[in-house]
Amino acid sequence: MRKTPGPALFPRLRRARALHRAAAGAALLGAMTAGLGQAAALACAPGSPAQQYQLGVEAQSAADHAAVLAHWRAAAQGGDVRAQESLGLVLMAGPALPGLSPDDRCEAWRWSRAAADQGSAVGRHQWELLGRLQRSAGLPPCP
């Protein structure tokens, strides 16, 4: 019977996977630049929404909350649905997370709505839940 790796091994596995993905991404970016031109290369550039989302995930595993929010906001502004969903969830927690204020519920509502507008069932659920919580608490509507 095969044993699963212990808890101490998981961070090293995650780091190894991240390095592998980064190397594969760099190789893909080089191939795209050479073969398909600059427009295709920019789609996979380190500043792309998908890359920003992944950087946020890595910052989350390092418990760097400020970096998580910065990367996910950049990805969400670029239209990444996963980042919009994640921001909706993180900001919904409000002051329970370091560095967040109670006013972040409106930002959570906006990102959840943006994800719902792109067809995300998770974003729609978050948006509806935030609306119900807002109404039941008697809070003013978000702009």
Largest sheet: none
Instruction: State the shape.
Output: globular
Q: Which regions are unreliable across 5 or more consecutive residues at pLDDT < 50? A: 24-45
The CA-CA distance between the termini, in Å, is 57 Å
Q: Bin the helical content.
A: over 70%
CATH C-level class of one domain: Mainly Alpha
What order do the SSEs take from the amino end to the carboxyl end, as H and E? HHHHHHH
- The SS-based structural class is mainly alpha
Describe the structure.
- With 143 residues, the chain is mostly helical.
- It has a domain at 49-137: Serine Threonine Protein Phosphatase 5, Tetratricopeptide repeat (Alpha Horseshoe).
- Helices cover 71% and strands 0% of the residues.
- It has helices at 9-35, 38-43, 49-61, 65-77, 81-92, 104-117, 121-137.
- Helix 3 runs antiparallel to helix 4 (65-77).
- The longest helix is centred in the first third of the chain and has 27 residues, at 9-35.
- The termini are far apart.
- Mean pLDDT is 74; it is low at 24-45.
Secondary structure elements and their pairing?
Layout: H1 9-35, H2 38-43, H3 49-61, H4 65-77, H5 81-92, H6 104-117, H7 121-137
Helix pairs in contact: 3-4, 4-5, 5-6, 5-7, 6-7
Properties at a glance:
mainly alpha; 7 helices; globular; TPR-like_helical_dom_sf; TAT_signal; Sel1 repeat family protein
